Response regulator transcription factor
Amino acid sequence: MLAEDSVLLRDGLTGLLARFGHEVVAAVGDAEALVAAVPQHDPDVVVTDVRMPPGFQDEGLHAAVRLRAERPALPVLVLSQYVQRAYAAELLDSGDGTGVGYLLKDRVGQVEEFVDALAEVADGGTVVDPEVVRQLLRRRRDPLERLSPREREVLALIAEGRSNAAIARELVVSEAAVGKHIGSILTKLDLPPATETHRRVLAVLTYLRA
């Protein structure tokens, strides 16, 4: 089963897999359709992208984690353009850690490499791009270590519920400077694109956990 929001890529992968002797029992374009289709078709393996409608954030990966929770033996291969660290670790820990994979699209050098990885996952193996491993290991460190002392100070004030204007007054800087600090904080904490309010909340949660 294939879950990919891009029509061109979805059709291309369907044709590619058929060329190598695989049958795509269903090809869907969003995470909800993926979750609904699995019990209907009972696939041998699921290939899914991470970002899919409606939010284009981590819907596909979240659906994969949900499916593995309901069916721990279901092989799942994530094929994505980036590493979504929040759910990647959870996916790789799901079930007994077998029959799961996470590959980055831009790092798949040959078609045969992808097809071999898919076969390995379907057979119960585990295939993880080295870049995914590197980023997951980095996630285990203190997420605030990348922040400068000033950025930590700004984040602490955000955690107290201060507005940008209030932070500017407290630190005796301009609101524009505060905005730049906040932008740098969000980037360094690897927070997913979302509304500014949502990202501030995630930054505060990261601060409190650390």
Remarks:
- The CA atoms of residues 158 and 200 lie 8 Å apart.
- The beta strands are 2-3, 27-28, 46-48, 76-80, 100-104, 126-128.
- The chain has a mean pLDDT of 88.
